[in-house]
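Sat 14:20. Reprocessing the chain from the morning session after the first attempt stalled halfway. Input below, unchanged.
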Amino acid sequence: MTGGNGLVAGDGVVFTAPPAATLTLANAPAGSVLNNATAAAAAPAYTQTPTLGAVGGSSGSITYLGSTSGSATFGCANATCTQLSSAIGAQFKNYLTAANCSGVGTAANPSVVTCATAAAGAFSCATNASGGTCQVNTGAVTANSEIIVQQVVDEGTRLSVTCNTASVLPAGPLLATKTAASGFTINLGTVTTNPGCFDYYIIN
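Finished this time. Tokens:
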């Protein structure tokens, strides 16, 4: 940085007079920002991992892979931002789970579906389990999980089956049991000709 005539100081003064010689700032790691929050003369310092706002703040933006988020809203309830403040809502374009299941149930009663640890996905239940149950094994279930399951007819391509277009829902409750770190079981009504297809997602 080379100084010269015409430099004007204002709020947040950097130069108190036009510098008479070349100014050299110390090297800093990539992605750093110049930082001197002391409001006093000091050698330049750098912050390599800048913090946007403060805990509980409600504005800011993030540049990620060259794209700026725009009007992002932040409301962290702790310094590591692992919890959002209950006073500030969070808005997302998409919700993504770490894993997504596409599971075909075994030809048995119960019809068993393997979904590893997926918290969401699609599965089918074989006709062998008509009037019985369908068991979805996923480690995403906890003792406090809310599990939402619904019958669908449009997952055939994904599951490589022909989904039943008639209702295969039971007369009573759909969700039968849930077991932490193991999975959940649903009740089935009449399932003939083609397997019943379902989507599910797990909260908590």
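The radius of gyration is 29 Å.
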